[in-house]
Amino acid sequence: TLRRGVLSGHLADVSHLLPVFFIAGNRGHQHVAMTADVFRRRMHYYIPPDVAIVDPELAETMPVKLVAHTGMDAMTHAIEAYVSTANCNYTDPLALWAIQMIQKHLVKSYKGDMENRDQMHDAQCLAGMAFSNALLGIVHSMAHKTGAAFEGGHIIHGAANAMYLPKVIRFNSKDPAAKKRYGEIADFMKLGGSNDDEKVDLL
Questions:
Q1: N or C: which end of the chain has fewer CB within 10 A?
Q2: What pLDDT, in 10s, does the model give residues 45-103?
Q3: Is 53 helix (H, G, I), strand (E, B) or coil?
Q4: HSE value, Cβ hemisphere, 13 Å, CA-based, for 39
Q5: pTM value?
């Protein structure tokens, strides 16, 4: 993992390392959402990076709409990883810390604060590390299908996640184990609630 400013003024220095792909969204985990036909034809979905460049300077010129969508994608990564049936002691801390960071920094990052953009960059990486090991759930399953089915209308992946997440939380909370996990997330976010039903509502 490389940090802030590592690429500034040095892009030419890596030309001898080609072929190199710079893919937004593939920071520290093995999945990436791509829309370009050339990538669909030539690259496998499972592409773990040899190096994850977590340099927030790369994200400083992101449109605010993209900041919001990628932030909600990361929040969904973290929440689904924590509630996943494959969660474990190694993924839970990553997921919970990412959730707390996103709660704290996403809105300020959206408003253009670059220190918070820096923190969001780290949070997205942590969430990616969590779900790479704990896996994801039906939110992402449906979001991927939505993006493919409505490609002409271009429903952005993060926006689809944001639309589905509250509904899936409500549906999954019918399972006692999932409800308990959602309640723990709400506690970690300090949302309040005196029982798991109230905590799910607040989440």
A1: N
A2: 556 666 777 787 888 888 999 999 999 999 999 999 999 999 999 999 999 999 999 99
A3: strand
A4: 11
A5: 0.80
